[in-house]
Amino acid sequence: MPLATADAVRLRIQDQARPAYEVRYGDGITTRFELPHRNITSATGYVQPGGTAWSGTASVTFDVSGFVEFTTIIPNNSAVNFRYVYSVFSDAEISHFTAVGGNVAGAALEAVRALRFDGLRRAKWAASDGTQYDDTAALQALDRLESALRLEAQEASSAGDLTSWGERQEEYL
Hints:
- By secondary structure, the chain is of the alpha+beta class.
- It has two domains: about 1-15 and about 90-160, no CATH class; about 20-85.
- About 40% of the residues lie in helices and about 25% in strands.
- The chain has five helices and nine strands.
- It has helices spanning about 5-10, 90-100, 105-120, 135-160, 160-165; strands at about 20-25, 30-35, 40-50, 55, 60, 65-70, 80-85, 125, 130-135.
- The strands form three sheets. It has a four-stranded antiparallel β-sheet with strand order 1-7-3-4, with no helix packed on it. It has a three-stranded antiparallel β-sheet with strand order 2-6-5, with no helix packed on it.
- α2 packs across α3.
- The model has no long low-confidence stretch (mean pLDDT about 80).
């Protein structure tokens, strides 16, 4: 069974769904928690109300942006166990990449451009405590990947085009 275009794009950019597990603790006031990931596709939340047994919570809402909202306040020091699945790009972003890119290679190219733009914001920094971070190697890898995908997308878009083949006939002699 062939993959749908969105699944082929996700496979190409290695953006398959990833499982995650997070434990937070209630403070007796908060009903909303923020998870460290966005683009949550499925999730469950369980509360350990003072005892040792986890109980499923039917009164929890997960937002794709990574926020979790309970309809009741979580008691102070009660553990909340979240199990969820997330991805780097949302389905809407993958659809946009596909529409703009025109094919799987073009969509992958659009995803790389989005990652590259995001990487420019944090390419290199240093904190006052001496901690340093240098992401320039990742940006260089994204540059190389973008070049390769640009060439592949151009070749894929001209495949089957007899006019372009005829005009470029001399290249094949």
